[in-house]
Amino acid sequence: MAFKEFNMDNQWLPFTPNRAFLKDPRVFVGADGMEFKTHDGRTVIDGISSLWCVGAGHNRKPINEAIKKQLDTLDYATAFQVSNDQAFEAATRIAALAPGDLNKVLFCNSGSEAADTSLKVALAYHRARGEGHRNVFIGREKGYHGVGFGGMSVGGIPGNRKAFGSAFLPRVDHMRFIHDPVNHAYIQNEEPVWAEDPLLELEQRILPLHDPSNVAAIIVEPVSGSAGWYLPPKGYLKRLREICDKHGILLIFDEVITGFGRMGTNFASDYYGVVPDMLNFAKCVTNGLIPMGGVICRDKLYDQMMKTDAPEHVVEFFHGYTYSGHPVACAAAIATLDLFKNEQLFSRAGEMGPVLGNAFHSAFRGLPNVIGIRSLGLAAAVELAPIAGSPGKRAYDIFVECFHNGALVRPAGDVVVIAPPYIVEKSHIDTLVNTLADAIRHAA
Ligand SMILES: Cc1ncc(COP(=O)(O)O)c(C=O)c1O
After folding, report:
1. pLDDT band at residue 5, thresholds of 50, 70 and 90?
2. What is the pTM of this model?
3. What is the distance between the alpha carbons of residues 374 and 415, in angstroms, rounded to a whole number?
4. 288 and 435 in one domain?
5. Same domain assignment for residues 214 and 304
6. Is 19 exposed, middle or buried (0-12, 13-18, 19+ CB in 10 A)?
7. For strand 370-375 and strand 380-384, is the pairing parallel, antiparallel, or unpaired?
8. Do 199 and 326 lie in a common domain?
9. Which mutation among 118, 226, 279 tests ligand 1's pocket best, with the greatest number of atoms within 8 A of CB?
10. Confidence band (pLDDT; 50, 70, 90) for 2?
11. Distance separating alpha carbons of residues 156 and 174, to the nearest angstrom
12. What SS3 state is found at 267?
């Protein structure tokens, strides 16, 4: 089917209902600051930083210029057996932002690749220590770690398990989800306090079942992002760290969404005061302009892998991607991190977070079908009662209506999330929230 000047016959759209899309296409042709231009000449506010990526807003000249300059200087060079100056500089900048001794950066190109990379580091590290039997991974229900088989296996997304579960990694278990819909339906810029300890199940059931000495790593998103911005109970991540330390298990934080400012800090690890053994990143590091991801490892992981008896010509970690540390992506990352710093955008995200959260709680409480509202950092979620027999339809309809009314919001199941770029103004928040409130009313 042809649409206006462009042909839509050949692109198979990712994570999109293609049949519905072709009947009602949503196509961007330009972007600047907080706004997109659509193919039919309308303006849409980017309420989700283009899927959590564009922290500094669109069309930022310093990043664009750095990319153009890099293209004319060193466009690309293989990453294997040689490297490039931009990759070393980008790694230095990223390690400087990371907490503790998270100092060694393995580059890849996406959050999915970061998930698989971190799981492979865990297996290789334990093997190098003479504990190759540690090969059980533990994730969490509703965790999202991308679409590779490793990330899907440790993730807890029912759609992935339904379609692809037959080919998942074999030795994986999952902790219970961290949401209490009765006591913590409404959370406003605070950490939920649980009366019971949600990690008892890990200590008393899951670890004894597998024997902790067999467990390679536990992977969690500090805040469960893709599932709909579900916040960890107070003290949860610290206790998870203690349990991992007690049993020699590596702790992986998937900070693909929470990394680079979303919480008002460099990483969620800083926000919660917990240093993992590996920290996965992707979104926001290049402001979304060029694909990039990575895993920041603690020194001990790298040091252990270098302590091998193998001859020096042998690769110590048998892993990498053709585009790991791509010079143009690295130039974009360096310029992005400079821009974040120069404009103090992480602290701005921290300041605008409560503005967004307060707007959510005052606009949506009591609207039809609203069963929960959660806000922390510069992101907020409103949870809706599903339509009986049609899970996800209510939030999808709301997303479509918002789009037509000039606001890009994110449906996740029957949750709708707003997570704007850090440059957001109160006026944008008001428009986004009012547009969403109207759509919630119409969907009743
Ligand atoms: C926490 C987390 N991990 C991994 C991913 C996968 O990232 P990508 O789509 O870049 O592969 C995502 C994507 O939303 C994510 O939120």
Report:
1. confident
2. 0.98
3. 10
4. no
5. yes
6. exposed
7. antiparallel
8. yes
9. 226
10. very low
11. 7
12. coil
Confidence class for position 4, pLDDT limits 50, 70, 90:
low
Q: For position 385, which CATH number holds?
A: 3.90.1150.10
Q: Which of 322, 342, 362 is the last residue of a domain?
A: 342
**Are residues 34 and 124 located together in one domain of the fold?**
no
Pocket flag, ligand 1, residue 58 (CB < 6 Å): no
Domain holding 196, by residue range, is 64-342
112 lines ligand 1 (CB under 6 A): yes
- Could you give the number of structural domains in the chain? 2
Q: Which atom in ligand 1 lies closest to the alpha carbon of residue 51?
A: 14
**pLDDT tens digits, one per residue of 232-282:** 999 999 999 999 999 999 999 999 999 999 999 999 999 999 999 999 999
CA of 283 to the centre of ligand 1 (A): 8
Question: Which CATH number goes with the domain that contains 274?
Answer: 3.40.640.10
Evaluate: CB of 226 within 6 angstroms of ligand 1: yes
Q: Which helix (H) or strand (E) holds 6?
A: strand 6-7
Average pLDDT, stretch 401-417? 98
Question: 350-363, pLDDT tens digit by residue?
Answer: 999 999 999 999 99
Ligand 1 atom at minimal distance to the Cα of residue 114: 4
The answer on 332 and 265 residing in a single domain is yes
By the 10 Å C-beta count (0-12 exposed, 13-18 middle, 19+ buried), 25 is classed as middle
Whether 254 lines ligand 1, by a CB cut-off of 6 Å, is yes
Does ligand 1 have an atom closer than 6 angstroms to the CB of 233?
A: no
